[in-house]
Write a structure and sequence with these properties.
Chain B: This is ABC transporter ATP-binding protein. Chain B: Belongs to the ABC transporter superfamily. Chain B: It comes from Xaviernesmea oryzae. Chain B: InterPro entries: AAA+_ATPase, ABC_transporter-like_ATP-bd, ABC_transporter-like_CS, ABC_transporter_ATP-binding, P-loop_NTPase. The complex is a heterodimer of chains A (about 270) and B (about 325). Chain A is mostly helical and about 270 residues long. Helices cover about 75% and strands about 0% of the residues of chain A. Chain B has about 325 residues and is of the alpha/beta class. Chain B folds into 2 domains: about 230 residues, P-loop containing nucleotide triphosphate hydrolases (Rossmann fold, 3-Layer(aba) Sandwich); about 60 residues. In chain B, the strands form 3 sheets. In chain B, strands 5-6-7-3-8-9 form a 6-stranded mixed sheet, sandwiched between helices. In chain B, helix 6 packs parallel to helix 7. Chain B is globular and about 80 Å long. The two termini of chain B are about 40 Å apart. The chains are: A mainly alpha (about 270), B alpha/beta (about 325). At the A-B interface, helix 1 and helix 5 of A face strand 1, helix 2, helix 3, strand 5 and helix 4 of B.
């Protein structure tokens, strides 16, 4: 176990060193992404100011949701997004074969060797929004509440990583997977809003087949003491367990697809 | 020496998806995909002993890389069995990977933006190499492959030849029992090829590392591998010493005779006339054992012979002729 941890650490260290070779591009990526998200959130704020609320959610509550959603997403995506989004190319170019001839778990190797520092602005924006909104909301921040927040964020991060893993694994079987990431982000945008504003069928989809509601709406509703339709009393537990459950399903999909891996070329 | 690689009637069949034209075809492909079986490897058997150096040769699409992928644990055979160091590679992939080294000529294990030495350090963690043994192996590789001058340079600044040398060194740092190389000299210049070939031959001789090498370049095989396995269309064509290849493929030596004056029709027992131009005559010699003197002695007395030569067909020529004959 100690050797495995050392390997993960070494991989993260090398990845960070490689990325820091070009600091300017990293800073520019932070700035551009930060502005991009800030712009999107500002437009939501404008709409909310005009209409007074969104599905019964006021600005500080929605700001907390936006901050939570982007922070949890960044936490999962920094370990998974780049690698699994490019899985199609890795399979096609034989890069994935190179992993299989090493005495390592290919998933762990991909995750730790591909850690992405470009999410700095996501974390900063998410943290600022959560702190500012948290102060305005007058919440009772006791130890249990903080623990619940941390576990929910972990769950949201696991959910993100699990979904990217499952989508990337499709490249083993289909030879293609990039198009699935486009579909993912179409639905992911919905996780910025309180699911209560959507129709019942879409709410159900976002709680089951495409569990994007657990990336923001469900855990934030629980933290803010707001009711969660459909889930009811199960919401607090599911806000924390959604990530691990999805991760187990993703691990099963990854293994099943890997068993059918055929590589490219003869 | 013990057998360390065994392939018993190994076949690999890929199910290739049929791409149907148009939007309706794409939708149909998603809902009910149609597949076509592609036989990449068919019923191939061979055994390799520890310390051997074997060239695995074949044209594009012959199934060379597929066989290497099955031996290294990337792919499972569709039928038949593969054993490497007593294991089925795909079933015990991690244990197998610890004892083999793999170099793919067109891909690199090195970190593009970092110095070569960082990638070597990573190999120490990946293969859990004892620090003292690592230091010893690393020093040996640096010396043998002359890596010292660019060890601390980022990989992106290296030439292809330097990168390949570093890649080969990285694959050997953990002291693997078997080294698999898939086209290791592809794209290299003459000097770099020579360095790689000499090094591989030396590693095989001195360390006893078993080498399995796929290549298009016959000189790789002539300089490194005394044994050749040749495949085509997924099937085994030849397995044996390189020197037996000519006989096995029916390649015959050519006798060329040059006369002072046109000698008219000439007949030599055991040699078949294949060409005639002016005062020159050419024959294919049936028996391998006959010497030039034997053949000249068989000429009718008084024939105005000026010069004679006996040509061995080159390996490349033998194989090229075989493939051309097969395609015709």
């Amino acid at each position: 176990m100690r050797e495995t941890l050392m390997l993960w650490w070494q991989l993260m260290r090398l990845r960070a060193r490689a990325r820091l070779q070009n600091r300017l591009s990293l800073v520019l990526a932070w700035i551009s992404q930060g502005f991009g998200y800030a712009g999107a959130f500002a437009s939501i704020w404008v709409i909310l100011n005009r209409f007074g609320g969104l599905g019964g959610w006021r600005w500080p509550e929605l700001a907390f949701l936006l901050g939570f959603q982007i922070f949890g997403y960044a936490l999962g995506a920094m370990f998974t997004f780049t690698q699994f989004r490019f899985m199609e190319e890795q399979v096609r170019d034989g890069e994935f074969d190179m992993l299989l001839v090493r005495p390592v778990n290919p998933w762990s190797f991909l995750v730790f060797s591909g850690i992405d520092l470009q999410y700095g602005s996501h974390f900063a924006l998410g943290l600022v929004l959560m702190i500012m909104a948290g102060l305005q909301l007058d919440l009772d921040w006791d130890l249990l509440m903080i623990l619940r927040l941390l576990l929910s964020l972990m769950s949201a991060a696991m959910l993100t990583g699990a979904m990217f893993t499952a989508l990337g694994a499709c490249a083993f079987v289909l030879g293609r997977s990039r198009f699935l990431f486009g579909l993912y982000f179409d639905f992911w945008e919905l996780s910025r809003y309180p699911a209560i504003i959507f129709g019942l069928p879409l709410q159900l989809i976002l709680l089951t087949i495409l569990p994007f509601s657990y990336m923001g709406f469900v855990p934030v509703s629980v933290l803010l003491g707001k009711p969660v339709p459909i889930l009811g009393d199960a919401a607090p537990m599911l806000a924390i367990l959604a990530g691990p459950i999805t991760a187990l399903i993703a691990a099963w999909i990854w293994r099943a697809c890997l068993r059918r891996y055929q590589g490219f070329g003869v | 020496m013990s057998l360390i690689i065994q392939a018993d009637s190994v076949s690999k069949i890929f199910q290739q998806r049929k791409r149907l034209p148009g939007l309706s075809g794409t939708l149909r492909g998603l809902l009910k995909p149609e597949t076509v079986p592609v036989r990449a490897v068919e019923e191939i058997s061979f055994a390799i002993r520890a310390g051997e150096a074997v060239g695995y040769l074949g044209p594009n699409g012959a199934g060379k890389s597929t066989m290497i992928k099955m031996l290294t644990g990337i792919l499972a055979p569709s039928t038949g069995k593969v054993h490497v160091l007593g294991r089925q590679p795909v079933e015990e992939r991690v244990a197998n990977a610890r004892e083999i080294g793999v170099v793919f000529g067109q891909r690199s294990q090195l970190w593009w933006d970092l110095p070569v030495s960082d990638s070597f350090d990573l190999a120490r963690h990946i293969y859990r190499i004892d620090p003292a043994r690592f230091a010893e192996n690393r020093a040996e590789m640096v010396e043998m492959l002359a890596l010292g001058s660019f060890l601390d340079r980022p990989v992106r600044q290296l030439s292809l030849g330097q990168r390949m040398r570093a890649d080969i060194a990285m694959a050997l740092l953990h002291g693997p029992k078997i080294l698999f190389l898939d086209e290791p000299t592809i794209g290299l210049d003459v000097v770099a090829k020579d360095v790689v070939r000499k090094f591989l031959a030396r590693i095989n001789r001195q360390r006893g590392t078993t080498i399995i090498l796929t290549t298009h370049d016959l000189q790789d095989i002539e300089e490194i591998c005394p044994r050749l396995i040749m495949v085509d269309d997924g099937r085994l064509l030849f397995d044996g010493p390189l020197r037996s290849l000519r006989r096995s493929f029916g390649a015959r030596r050519r006798l060329r005779l040059d006369f002072y004056t046109d000698p008219g029709p000439i007949w030599i027992g055991g040699a078949r006339p294949v060409g005639s131009s002016g005062t020159q005559r050419e024959f294919e010699v049936d028996e391998d054992g006959r010497s030039l003197i034997d053949l000249i002695s068989a000429l009718p007395p008084g024939t105005p012979l000026r010069d004679a030569s006996l040509h061995e067909p080159g390996i490349e020529e033998v194989i090229r002729t075989h493939y051309q004959r097969r395609r015709a």
